[in-house]
Amino acid sequence: MPTLLHIDSSPRGDRSISRKLSRVFAEEWQRKNLDGKVVYRDLVMTNLPFVDVQWIGGAYSPPEEHTPEQSAALRISDDLVAEFLSADEIVLGTPMYNFNVPANVKAWIDHIVRVGKTFEIKDTELKGLVPAGRKATFIVASGSNFKAGGPRAHHDHESPYLQAIFNFIGITDTNVILAGDAKDLSQGKVKEVDFLKPLIEEVIAAA
Ligand SMILES: Cc1cc2nc3c(=O)[nH]c(=O)nc-3n(C[C@H](O)[C@H](O)[C@H](O)COP(=O)(O)O)c2cc1C
Questions:
Q1: Residue 35 and residue 199: Cα distance in Å, rounded?
Q2: How wide is the angle at C-alpha 95 spanned by C-alphas 46 and 160, nearest 5°?
């Protein structure tokens, strides 16, 4: 039974473009994988702590040597890593904040990119540990347009970063859907139905 991990991160609830599109992706994926399971993770509700000194001490020492504080700091990371590794496929709905991922997505990445769990250090080499064959789709909503070849493309530090960090842990099959120009919607220059139509088609084709 295949599993999709569906992650949302926008704090804008029902007004969020990335949430609307990630939901379409999850629904279409479920339609195509009738025996599949969708696991949902809302990073706004999860309220993740940042990596701290206890987390680092624990992550870089053997479990049998962990102090109670280190074990406690790693607990949420252990859960997120297990959830992440149990998924065959991931869809992440995310806003662009200041040309990059929002802080809650970065906090999640810091918890799941874990030495000995999702990557390893062998001699001086770093190697991803996520089993082969996994796939990730990133749906990035932004006020401006960052399409390849456009005048602002070089400011998109989010999609290259997401692809790079997933590649690092072993997920090379990645796809980015850019939902740009969302400012036209908030400024009333375009109707929501018209704004979403081509994006929904792109998302359905990708799911
Ligand atoms: C704190 C903050 C930072 C933002 N930074 C950018 C940015 O760097 N580039 C951009 O095009 N839009 C930026 N935006 C606009 C959002 O990306 C846009 O509203 C998007 O639709 C948010 O995703 P959502 O609709 O899923 O909430 C920013 C919005 C906020 C609140």
A1: 26
A2: 105
Indicate if the pLDDT at residue 123 is higher than 90.
no
Distance CA 194, CA 188 (A): 12
Using a 6 Å cutoff on CB, does residue 168 contact ligand 1? no
Domain extent for 47: 3-206
* C-alpha R_g of the chain: 18
Cα 171 from Cα 130, distance rounded (Å)? 7
Atom of ligand 1 nearest to the CA of 93: 26
pTM of the model: 0.97
- Check residue 170 and give its pLDDT: 97
**For residue 79, how many C-alpha atoms fall within 13 Å in the half-sphere facing its CB?**
8
Q: Closest Cα to atom 15, ligand 1: which residue?
A: 143
Element (H, E) at 53: helix 53-59
- In total, how many domains does the chain have? 1
108 touches 80 (CB < 8 A): yes
CATH code at 9?
Answer: 3.40.50.360
State the chain's mean pLDDT as an integer: 97
Locate the ligand 1 atom nearest the alpha carbon of residue 12 and give its number.
27
Q: Does ligand 1 lie within 6 Å of residue 61's CB atom?
A: no
